[in-house]
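Saturday, quiet lab. Running sequence design on the structure tokens for the scaffold JK sent over.
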């Protein structure tokens, strides 16, 4: 161990192993839940990825949504950033199953939000998720740190995601009163930085309905 290594925290190995096991089990279960019955039959890590044409998008969308939670450079307090409860609230509360759609698409370098929307994002959503405008959505807007600015809200407007003022007031009031919130369609977005994107933007998200 070098001198620099001594600055790292000491970790209880049993607790770390337990937390890591829960994380890996949870990730596998999430992937398995989004697989078809045929894909689940002989499910293991490599078979889940190898047999699903959109699996790369599933992993990318999950990664980007998790990055949103940890992103230190935030553009507002009522975004998906650092608000994991919004992810949980977006899952329908009902006794019968729902469908989870996922996507991840990247713009051309320097492409405007409107051009990116018209060329790639809107056609993708309309083809895969015809009812996406009426369903809950979690969206990650990813760009390089140099490109992180209020332009991210252009995508929020185009895709109709983000809390309205009255929705924010209702959520805050319910939290203060300690009241459970009624199940509703929740469409949230957050931002995350990926230096490798350069002048491109990546949109990743889930559609829950």
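Result came back. Writing it out in full:
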């Amino acid at each position: 161990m070098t001198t620099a290594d001594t600055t790292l925290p000491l970790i209880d190995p049993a607790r770390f192993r337990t937390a890591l096991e829960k994380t890996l089990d949870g990730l596998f279960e999430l992937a398995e839940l989004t697989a078809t019955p045929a894909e689940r039959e002989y499910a293991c890590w490599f078979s889940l990825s190898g047999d699903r044409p959109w699996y790369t998008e599933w992993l990318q969308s999950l990664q980007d949504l998790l990055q949103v939670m940890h992103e230190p450079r935030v553009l507002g307090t009522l975004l998906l950033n650092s608000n994991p409860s919004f992810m949980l609230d977006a899952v329908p509360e009902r006794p019968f199953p729902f469908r989870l759609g996922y996507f991840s698409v990247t713009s051309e370098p320097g492409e405007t939000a409107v051009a990116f929307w018209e060329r790639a994002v809107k056609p993708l959503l309309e083809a895969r998720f015809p009812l996406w405008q009426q369903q809950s959505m979690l969206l990650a807007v990813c760009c390089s740190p140099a490109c992180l600015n209020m332009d991210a809200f252009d995508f929020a407007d185009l895709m109709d995601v983000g809390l309205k003022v009255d929705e924010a007031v209702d959520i805050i009031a319910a939290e203060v009163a300690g009241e459970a919130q009624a199940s509703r369609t929740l469409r949230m977005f957050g931002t995350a930085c990926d230096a490798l994107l350069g002048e491109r933007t990546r949109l990743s998200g889930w559609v829950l309905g």
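Notes for JK: The chain has two domains: 12-52, 53-208. The radius of gyration is 19 Å. Ask whether to fix the surface positions before the next round.
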